[in-house]
Design goal:
The complex is a heterodimer of chains A (about 160) and B (about 120).
Chain A: H1 21-25, H2 30-33, H3 36-53, E1 56-61, H4 68-77, E2 86-92, E3 97-102, H5 104-109, H6 112-127, H7 131-146, H8 150-153
Parallel strand pairs in A: 1-2
Antiparallel strand pairs in A: 2-3
Chain B: H1 3-26, E1 46-48, E2 109-114
The chains are: A alpha+beta (about 160), B alpha+beta (about 120).
Chain lengths: ~160, ~120
Amino acid sequence: MTRALEAESHDTATAQTAPARTDEATDDGADQLFSYQELGRLDEALTMSSRETGLRFTLYIGDLGRQTRVTAEDLHARSGQNPTDAVLIAVSPGQRVVEVVTGAGAGRRLPDRACALAVLSMTGSFAAGDLIGGIINGLRQLSDQAGHPSALRHPHH
Amino acid sequence: MNVAETIIVFVGIPLGFVVLLALLIFLPGRKRPRYKPGQPWEHAPVWYEPHPEHGPAAGGHGTPGHEGQTKAIGSSVYGEPSHDAHGSQEHAHGAATAAPRAVSAGPLGGARGTW
């Protein structure tokens, strides 16, 4: 028996051509992870909490290795130009662990107790299967706790 | 109304309605794998970052460097090809850790939670 011809093209992308749409669709990217609506909410929460507080909130979702705290602190050290004022939320759904890492400057405005409270609310949502909702609520709690920096409080007076 | 009409109206229409609802519910292709606690996580690591602030009034800490910023708009994933001078030797494990160089941030704080 002869097999049916494969109808979908799988060409390789070169410098001049983009990959075929059929190959793009199978790419296991971030689009499949969350819907565009969820990504939009996530984007807005990250951006607004970073602007309001002057801290830099970043979110990592993925495996954290065996020593989750060490991996999260290593990621935090690489999270940008100025990790002193950075806050990293690292979620590892496979290991069921969430780590919040604050730099020295961010830690003055976000004490560990505030982080623990935000983590508690996040884990409550995660246990119910709501990753995005938990992350957004945690971001909201962290940014509320951090408040506005004194430089942004009186902008042009 | 004879027997055939009665059957069409009182059996056919409800049956069609039920089939329509079933099709809407179980239509393949619109299902997104939802996270359930305890499942293994088989997605690639992803790192979301906030939009960079626009305008020059971005606070007083140094110049807004461009070397570590990704070129995508909005939340983006680290691991894009960077054209820096030092961008080649940083290929640790996975794309997510190929971020800018590590900078010490002083005593770290934070919290951990499990669920």
